[in-house]
Amino acid sequence: MICMCPFVVEHCCYAAISYFTDISFKLDEKTAHSSLDLFKKDTAIIYRMLGIDPSKIPQNPERFREWAIVLGDAQIVSGRHYWEVTVKRSNEFRIGVADADMSRDECIGVSNRSWVFAYCHSKWFVMQDSKKFPITNIGHPSKVGLLLDYEGQRLNLVDSEKNTLIHTLNADFRGPVVPAFALWDGELLTHSGLDVPENL
Questions:
Q1: What is 17-111+121-194's CATH number?
Q2: In Å, what is the CA distance from 192 to each residue of 23, 109, 146?
């Protein structure tokens, strides 16, 4: 069930996802940094080294100005929700969630209002509030899952092939959060509208 009372964040409205909804979202072009192009009906991004001329894209307070970040267009305020991410030809990216109203001048993983799993230099890390901790025994899978437990205050990285938890990040959700993605090369595709795997 989707709440009919959208939250307003810096003049941008999002649908709030309730406890009973399998989260389904698209990437919000209004938040996308100029180096990211959206495709596949706004469910995927590709990084462009030169990007789009900032003077040729609409300027608005929702857009990230310094970092190659884009947010999902659905806010989560309760429940357990699961989505998957496929990454192609990328050596550096971050996936997770962030406060819907986080500063557009900060990067996810650096901001204390974001919770992410990062891949860089062939290694995985947990990142939050500029703190970084390694995740071992994961390799470089082409697709992973994210399981958000809002009331449980947890974000889980999931092996999407085995439906097993890889790592759990304890969070401090205080308000609406949205899926968040950063990409510095290659492509990233999102897969939402999925049921939470039964054994998780």
A1: 2.60.120.920
A2: 6, 22, 10
